[in-house]
């Protein structure tokens, strides 16, 4: 069973990446555009340029979209992980020590999920892999000798 699971690992990572990226993108879109209940649950948005909420929502939208597509996954996931670590320690941890006490479970989970993706990469179904395979094909073709 282990060899089959090892063979499926890139696909599992790819699906994991897409789900986490979609959830993060939706969170940023809700805060910025008032969709999916908005920032306050009644369709409200965050006022443009307010610190840190508006910038956090922008980071969520952009990095979540990049992770969802698998484009620049490692860098985007690293930035997203850092933003969630900041959110936890700035907004939640001062309230109480443990995430279950301070309502910080979601930022902690997102932080660790994105940190994992920063180390594992995009997995299957990603633009990163597509671009890498095309680049390898172009490099291989350019290194072949020209014959007449």
UniProtKB/TrEMBL annotation:
Pfam families: DoxX. It is a multi-pass membrane protein. InterPro entries: DoxX, DoxX-like_oxidoreductase. Keywords: Cell membrane, Membrane, Transmembrane, Transmembrane helix. The chain crosses the membrane at residues 12-34, 54-71, 106-127. It is found in: Cell membrane. Belongs to the DoxX family. This is DoxX family protein. It comes from Streptomyces caeni.
């Amino acid at each position: 069973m282990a060899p089959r699971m090892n063979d499926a690992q890139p696909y599992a990572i790819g699906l994991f990446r897409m789900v986490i990226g979609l959830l993060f993108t939706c969170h940023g879109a809700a805060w910025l555009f008032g969709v999916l209940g908005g920032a306050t649950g009644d369709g409200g948005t965050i006022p443009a340029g307010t610190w840190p909420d508006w910038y956090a929502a922008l980071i969520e939208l952009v990095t979540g979209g990049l992770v969802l597509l698998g484009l620049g996954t490692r860098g985007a996931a690293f930035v997203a992980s850092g933003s969630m670590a900041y959110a936890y320690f700035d907004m939640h941890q001062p309230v109480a020590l443990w995430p279950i006490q301070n309502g910080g479970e979601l930022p902690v989970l997102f932080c660790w999920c994105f940190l994992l993706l920063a180390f594992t990469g995009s997995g299957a179904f990603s633009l990163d892999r597509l671009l890498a395979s095309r680049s390898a094909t172009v490099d291989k073709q350019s290194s072949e000798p020209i014959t007449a």
